[in-house]
Amino acid sequence: MDPNKINRFLLFKLPSAWISGVRVKAFNKEYCRVSVKHRWINQNPFKSMYFAVQNMAAELSTGVLVMQHIKMQNVPISMLVIKAESKFYKKATGKIHFECNSGLLAENAIIKSLKEDISQQIEMPVMALNSKNEVVSEFKFTWSIKPKTNQK
To answer: Beta strands 77-88 and 120-129: pairing type?
Structure first.
């Protein structure tokens, strides 16, 4: 997995995020950074970025981390957002970066889920920063992960 492959995935599987300008910029085992620039297509009536676009970018920064750790296990595992929280502090204008540093938390939960064959929940916070490095918004996504079992 690399940012270009994830961004192509967006085009075909999450076109509203792609059209809105949401792009994965960088990620590794621990960290993911997603960016989106305020434009006409993703603005609200108050001339800032629509909250739903911010939520898409923030969720993607967590989802990429969960997906890559699932892929590393080479075992079918389901993943689902079961809770989303957000706080908005400033108008989101210009380029906004969404950063999540919970990759190792996701990895540990996935390993535990597989080892114990049970569902696990992962709370993953995200910070959204503008070009001045000011916090624009904060998010927390709770993912449920569960090994897929053969069901007839």
So the answer is: unpaired
**Interatomic CA distance for residues 59 and 63, integer angstroms:** 6
Catalogue the E-assigned strands of the chain.
23-27, 32-37, 77-88, 95-100, 120-129, 135-147
The domain total for the chain is: 1
CB crowding 72-91: b at 16 or more within 10 Å, else e = eeeeebebeeeeeeeeeeee
> Which CATH number covers residue 33?
3.10.129.10
Domain housing 14: 3-147
Mean pLDDT for the stretch of residues 37-64: 97
Amino acid symbol at 89: Y
| Tens digits of residue pLDDT in 74-92 | 899 999 999 999 999 999 9
Measured distance CA(140)–CA(127) in Å, rounded? 9
Confidence of residue 2 (pLDDT cuts 50, 70, 90): confident
- The tokens describing 72, both together, are 């590393």
Rounded to the nearest integer, the mean pLDDT of the chain is: 94
